[in-house]
Write a structure and sequence with these properties.
The protein contains 44 helices and 25 strands. It is an alpha/beta fold and about 1000 residues long. Among the domains are: about 200 residues, Vanillyl-alcohol Oxidase, Chain A, domain 3 (3-Layer(aba) Sandwich); about 90 residues, no CATH class. Helix 19 runs antiparallel to helix 20. The longest helix has 22 residues.
């Protein structure tokens, strides 16, 4: 079990933390009170109630600076179950918070009562009307919804920068917008219908023909009350005009009271009010969006102006000519990205007031783009810029510009001092006051001792400001309060702008709703809240509060943790791709729990309980695939920390044994093949019962239970040790036949020559012959040791494989091709920290090519595809994502199949070398959404590029996933040839 209680002691933050109003340690350590847990288990079932201390801690924080421990976490599956939770909570006078992605920046998804996870069982979507509509459930991540729409040429209107993590339900609940949607294409304008559940238990689908009548009959007081508020608003002409003015720009402060002007019926009004209501009025169970065209013809420019005023002055002309985006970045932003890839060195010399504007036009046709280009050029010619600029259609250059813009968060978040928070807020100024507002915001940073930056969606007058305050002491909290109070006065009193533009109100701004809207309208909001939620059960203090200091309650500290993860800003981007997201913990949660351990005093019973539960929930069930690093804005690979923890759990004897196994890996290969043969014989003779398991247990006890796989029904027979005869002379590349492929043979469904036969045959056919070294046995990519934290074994094998490849490739003169993607990635990246100085230099000169890149770049152009199969489904393994080969894998599939599909939910299968053998429940959970997406569809082939991942997918789907090399060889084989040629 993990015993590490502290990271480097010199880096621990001070203990003088500000008050956080936590539960007593004795109470928290016990988790959910027994009476509450038992009651909810009776209502929902045991699997839907999460009551351990680790469950409560991992949901205590979101992307905001707030922390509240729920009493219990529930994962209901149906509307009926949520209705039962609502009824129970009201009976017991418990607050209820609905949480989805937890990407809220202002504290919307935390509570100290019952917390409903609205993501786990609430994903799914249906494209309707040729892509013009999307029916979608609230737990669906935005980017996946847009992936479903992409083939039809449409997308959702809201386009928040957090689309990689935010769910549709959260986007609706916050009326989140983004860079291009403005006030025209947000959820408020594009949500056609919605299904919702009120605290009373009333469930309404606004698309039903008689929905209006259902609503009035079921909720007469709510319906009548809405109409009374509407009448009062219309009687106050000044209020009507104020609402129209305030909603002419982005505004998500409080409830969207413009609904009373935009709709005339009770249900019509309430449907609009649900947008931006932040889970305080009802649970949204489904929505139907009118989508918008996803215009693919684009012109992009990055313009650097001498000052803020000149940059802002250029916005209106570009917008008038149809610019879709105009993204502003102040000098602090440009400074933050200095030294990053694609950022010119000359920017280091820009003057202190320099301001950038990223402008993009998006059009449906080349003709329209040409017109836009002419208009853009006319505006460009009249600008005074610090450096020459032009609009480009080059997608790679445009992507570089957007990378600079999107790089602000990771650059600032990653560089912030340890122990500080990252707070990203947003406001909106009238567009004609944008420059003045931005400059005034900048002045507030030094006034309160913060280094901050200002950037945002200039076309809408919507600015974000980012600061990295310490919130560890009372003085820190008072300083933050003073800063926020000044922001309120600036935005509301001086410019009559919006305190919240697109992030939602949340705990951070709830105390200031009345300041922006005045007493009369705020009282109407309270009336609305009581009409829909009479017991004020849903998300207290999130939208409206009587507590003028609510924004200072429950602020959390950020203790220093291990350096691998200390830069985490708890945004949650990692969660949608994490293999263990639905079964134990996500990378963010692993870090959140670790930080909680460090918040607790020495000897804390909370820490003791967390450590025990952390072993399985965090360490054992981490696939270590590194997908989190690809999604993380600051590039954190939480798997590296989990592997370190695994290493720290090993004693000297275990490390010695692992190293000896590395030194004798050739014998281990033979043992593994013997075990697989025993398994195959036992399965054939006894149907895969206990005999097969027992046979493998014997071998695992002799070799290592960590290094030899356990029994699973998908384990194939052993690979034949014989490989095709090849010649080094005139070889185009060395062929590193990975040990996973040297051990695991083909499945029963695909008996025949192995991957080595196919690789050699198809490469020779393309005139790119491969050479298999005679001394492959005993070599490995070292992932076996790396993933388990065996440092000595890892070091031995890492250096051995580089030395061998250096020898085989004649000092790096010819490339090396690997037939297992995870091995390619491991050798390319993961072994680097274990190499000697000499081998590190050798490694830099080696050219290692994965089989997918080899097939697409080197073989396919020289081969004739004799025929195409009808259909294929592709599973791009996590290593393919790391290697940047996803697109090539898809194009390879499209060359071989008339219909090649990569599922939207295709993420890491979590087999993770052998993690799937040790914890098959992890693979089952990680692939569940992908399996559901494929459903009953039948494909001719199931394509992959890594043998153990193929086993994982076989286990999950019951289908025979194989390397794409097999299909490439088969379909480029001359028609008269029946099988791969074997030398």
């Amino acid at each position: 079990m993990l015993t590490l209680l502290e990271p480097d002691a010199a880096r621990i933050t001070p203990a003088d933390h500000a008050p956080t109003h936590d539960r007593a340690p004795e109470e928290l350590a016990l988790g959910t009170p027994l009476w509450l847990r038992d009651d909810l288990v009776e209502i929902l079932g045991d699997a839907q109630v999460h009551s351990r201390v680790i469950d409560l801690v991992k949901y205590a924080t979101d992307a905001s600076p707030y922390r509240m421990f729920p009493k219990v976490v529930v994962t209901p599956r149906t509307v009926e179950e949520i209705a039962r939770i609502f009824a129970y909570a009201q009976k017991k006078k418990l607050p209820v918070t609905i949480r989805s992605a937890g990407s809220s920046l202002s504290g919307q998804s935390q509570g100290d009562g019952i917390l409903i996870d609205g993501r786990k069982h609430w994903a799914g979507m249906t494209v309707e009307d040729g892509g013009k509509r999307l029916r979608v459930r609230p737990g669906t991540v935005m980017f996946r919804a847009n992936l479903a729409l992409h083939p039809y040429g449409y997308r959702l209107g809201p386009d928040p920068a957090s689309s990689g993590v935010a769910t549709v339900g959260g986007v609706i609940a916050n009326n989140a917008s983004g860079m291009c949607c403005g006030t025209v294409e947000n959820s408020y304008k594009t949500l056609e219908s919605v299904s919702f559940l009120l605290p009373s238990g009333t469930h309404i689908n606004t698309a039903d023909p008689d929905a209006e009548n259902q609503f009035s009959v079921a909720e007469p007081d709510l319906a009548a009350g809405l109409m009374e508020i509407r009448e009062e608003i219309y009687k106050d002409t000044k209020l009507v005009e104020r609402l129209k003015k305030k909603y002419s720009i982005k505004n998500t402060t409080g409830y969207h009271m413009g609904a009373f002007l935009d709709e005339s019926t009770p249900l019509g009004i309430f449907r609009k009010l649900l947008v931006g209501s932040e889970g305080t009025l009802a649970f949204i169970s489904e929505g139907v969006f009118e989508t918008v065209p996803d215009d693919k013809y684009r012109l992009t420019a990055f313009l650097v102006f001498p000052d803020m005023h000149s940059a802002c002055a250029a916005v209106a002309p570009f917008v008038a000519h149809g610019a879709a985006a105009a993204e502003l970045s102040d000098r602090g932003c440009l400074h933050a990205v200095e030294g990053k890839p694609g950022v010119p060195d000359r920017w280091k010399t820009l003057p202190s007031e320099a301001t950038a504007l990223l402008v993009e036009f998006r059009e449906p046709t080349p003709e329209k783009l040409k017109e836009a280009g002419a208009a853009a050029q006319s505006v460009l010619e009249g600008l005074q810029l610090l450096e020459k600029a032009e609009f480009t259609q080059d997608p790679h250059l445009a992507a570089q510009y957007w990378t600079i813009r999107s790089g602000l968060l990771p650059s600032i978040g990653g560089a912030r001092p340890s122990g500080t928070s990252l707070i990203l807020e947003d406001v909106c100024f009238p567009p004609d006051k944008l420059a003045d507002g931005a400059l005034d915001l900048q002045k507030l940073f030094p006034k309160h001792g913060y280094d901050g930056v200002v950037f945002g969606h200039a076309s809408a007058g919507n600015l974000h400001f980012l600061i990295t305050p310490s919130l560890n002491t009372e003085t820190d909290v008072e300083r933050f309060d003073g800063f926020l109070q000044d922001v309120v006065k600036l935005v509301v009193d001086k410019y009559d702008g919006s305190l919240k533009a697109e992030h939602g109100t949340g705990r951070n701004i709830a105390p200031f709703v009345e300041h922006e809207w005045g007493l009369k309208l705020t009282d109407m909001m309270w009336r609305l809240k009581r009409l829909a939620d009479p017991n004020l059960m849903l998300a207290p203090d999130v939208m409206l509060t009587r507590d003028t200091k609510a924004h200072l309650r429950h602020l959390h500290t950020v203790p220093t943790v291990e350096q691998e993860v200390d830069r985490c800003i708890e945004c949650g981007y990692c969660e949608s791709v994490c293999p263990s997201r639905h079964i134990t913990t996500t990378p963010r949660q692993r870090i959140v729990i670790r930080r909680e351990m460090l918040r607790q005093p020495t000897g804390s019973i909370v820490t003791e309980a967390l450590l025990k539960q952390y072993e399985y929930d965090a360490i054992e069930t981490c696939a270590g695939d590194g997908s989190c690093a690809l999604a993380c804005p600051v590039g954190i690979n939480t798997g590296m920390l989990m592997k370190r923890f695994r290493h720290e759990e090993h004693n000297t004897t275990q490390e010695h044994v692992a190293e000896k196994i590395a030194e004798n890996w050739g014998a281990a290969e033979i043992g593994a093949r013997a075990a697989l043969t025993l398994n195959h014989i036992a399965t054939s003779m006894y149907g895969g019962s206990l005999v097969a398991e027992s046979a493998l247990k014997v071998v695992r006890s002799v070799v290592s239970k960590d290094l030899v796989p356990g029994w699973l029904p998908v384990i194939p027979p052993a690979a034949t040790p014989k490989v095709p005869d090849t010649s080094r002379e005139a070889a185009a590349a060395v062929y590193f036949h990975a040990c996973v492929n040297r051990m695991f043979g083909n499945s029963e469904e695909s008996k025949g020559p192995g991957i080595a036969d196919a690789m050699v045959a198809v490469s020779a056919r393309a005139g790119m012959p491969l050479w298999i070294p005679d001394d492959l046995s005993g070599t490995c990519c070292a992932t076996v040791w790396h993933s388990k934290g065996y440092a000595d074994g890892n070091k031995y094998m890492a250096n051995k494989i580089v030395e061998k490849m250096w020898e085989w490739s004649d000092g790096g003169k010819i490339p090396v091709v690997c037939d297992a993607s995870s091995c390619t990635f491991g050798i390319t990246t993961e072994i680097l920290g274990y190499l000697t100085l000499q081998n590190s230099e050798r490694h830099k000169q080696l050219k290692l090519i994965d089989s997918v890149g080899w097939a697409y770049d080197y073989l396919l152009p020289k081969l004739k595809v004799e025929r195409q199969i009808e259909s294929a489904v592709i599973h791009p393994v996590c290593a393919i994502h790391h290697l940047g080969l996803v697109e090539k894998m898809q194009l390879l599939g499209e060359a071989l199949a008339k219909k090649a599909v990569t599922p939207i939910y295709a993420t890491c299968c979590a087999f993770a070398g052998d993690r799937g053998f040790l914890h098959p429940e992890l693979t089952q959970s990680a692939t569940s959404e992908e399996v559901n997406e494929i459903g009953d569809q039948e494909f001719d082939k199931y394509l992959c590029s890594n043998r153990t991942c193929e086993l994982g997918m076989n286990l999950a789907t019951g289908k025979d996933y194989q390397s794409v090399i097999f299909l490439l060889e088969e379909l480029t084989r001359p028609q008269a040839q029946d099988a791969p040629s074997i030398a």
